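Thread amino acids onto this structure.
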């Protein structure tokens, strides 16, 4: 078969003619007509040649894999007849540039110039100088070239349209061995902590649903989207959110407003937990571990109930303080985020100062109250709490306000209860 534009002989039809650089894909349906002009050996020679093998390797591959024996002179003659060369008959630069631009519209945008040069040779039978490919790629995609030259892995940047565009919800289990579970929600744009609560459990769907309803009632707005992991504790909250969003007509209304995903993909809240551990929770983990090392806590249900009874209020007070401090501290700009820098409280309430808008939807107090009334009643006290209350009254112990007094109450009540 011959190229209809320049007349060069073609052993097989590829995307572009290696001689004139014209697009000849329309000939692929005809490549097996007149098969007498090509042989299986010629197709194998072209394949191995375009893969970049040397003459000696090509002859060995033909002989070993396909039982075809050729001399070096015969191989070179067949390559000349097929107009296959390595350093002559270079394809026009305009054709090379067009093919590179086509490749960069897809996954080829990740390739360096060496890989692109190999792709041009193997996939499109383009003969080009590697330096020419490098210069063309630098002019077509300077940003990508700079990223590859820095030899750094470029992560996908987090992007949010504004406050209340997405709320990220997750639970924190590092204190669960001591009977205390934490649940939190963060606004993806402003990084404002919407709620930060500790309780007996964060696996109870009703606990998470109440946190959500209380937050929506406080701010009188529900987010455009809600993102959680696939835990069963998020089911009631997801249903409540979808009901609230069913009143709207945007593209994420109704069931599309809630998004399940893996914990590693819920990056806003997952990354915030690292700050929380370094700045707050590590202290409590060490404190409770010290009680265990001193044989004051052994992990039994009675010890867990007593520790929760003494520390839950103090810890919640500490969480409220930390939430306030976080929401009013200054977040520095980072390259991995397209969200602005500043104080979360300001970015949440006055987004126009940061050239964005509030993406949330006002909620009807009647609808929220109706949904709240549909939730089943929940018992928040431990079975042992009345016993601990009676012991505290007998000893005249006040409710602890600091962690020191909480430790003292825990030790005294443990001895009084004979635990």
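Threaded sequence (419 positions):
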């Amino acid at each position: 078969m011959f190229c209809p534009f320049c007349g060069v002989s073609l052993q097989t039809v590829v995307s572009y003619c290696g001689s004139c650089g014209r697009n000849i894909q329309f000939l692929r349906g005809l490549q097996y007509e007149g098969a007498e002009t090509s042989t299986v050996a010629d197709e194998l020679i072209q394949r191995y040649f375009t893969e970049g093998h040397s003459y000696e390797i090509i002859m060995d591959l033909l002989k070993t894999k396909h039982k075809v024996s050729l001399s070096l002179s015969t191989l070179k003659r067949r390559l000349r007849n097929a107009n296959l060369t390595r350093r002559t008959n270079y394809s026009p630069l305009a054709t090379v540039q067009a093919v590179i631009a086509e490749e960069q519209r897809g996954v080829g945008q990740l390739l360096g110039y060496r890989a692109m040069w190999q792709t041009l040779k193997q996939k499109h039978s383009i003969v080009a100088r590697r330096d020419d490919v490098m210069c063309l790629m630098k002019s077509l995609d300077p940003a990508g070239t700079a990223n590859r030259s820095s030899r750094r892995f470029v992560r996908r940047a987090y992007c949010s349209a504004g406050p209340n565009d997405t709320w990220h919800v997750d639970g924190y289990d590092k204190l669960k061995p001591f009977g205390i579970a934490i649940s939190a929600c963060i606004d993806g744009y402003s990084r404002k902590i919407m709620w930060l609560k500790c309780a007996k459990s964060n696996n109870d769907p009703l606990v998470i649903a109440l946190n959500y309803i209380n937050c929506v009632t406080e701010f009188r707005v529900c987010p455009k989207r809600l993102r959680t992991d696939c835990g069963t504790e998020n089911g009631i909250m997801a249903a409540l959110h979808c009901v609230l969003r069913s009143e709207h007509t945007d593209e994420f209304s109704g069931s599309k407003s809630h998004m399940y995903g893996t914990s590693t993909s819920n990056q806003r809240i997952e990354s915030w937990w690292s700050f929380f551990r370094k700045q707050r929770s590590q202290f409590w983990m060490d404190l409770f571990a010290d009680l265990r090392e001193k044989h004051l806590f052994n992990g039994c249900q009675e010890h867990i109930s007593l520790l929760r009874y003494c520390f839950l209020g103090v810890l919640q007070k500490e969480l409220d303080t930390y939430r306030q401090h976080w929401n009013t501290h200054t977040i520095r700009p980072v390259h991995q985020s397209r969200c602005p820098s500043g104080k979360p409280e300001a970015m949440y309430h006055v987004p126009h100062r940061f050239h964005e808008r509030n993406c949330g939807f006002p909620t009807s107090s009647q609808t929220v109250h109706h949904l709240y009334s549909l939730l089943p009643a929940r018992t928040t006290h431990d079975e042992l709490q009345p016993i601990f209350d009676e012991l505290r009254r007998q000893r005249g112990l006040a409710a602890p306000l600091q962690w020191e007094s909480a430790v003292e109450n825990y030790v005294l009540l443990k001895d009084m209860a004979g635990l």
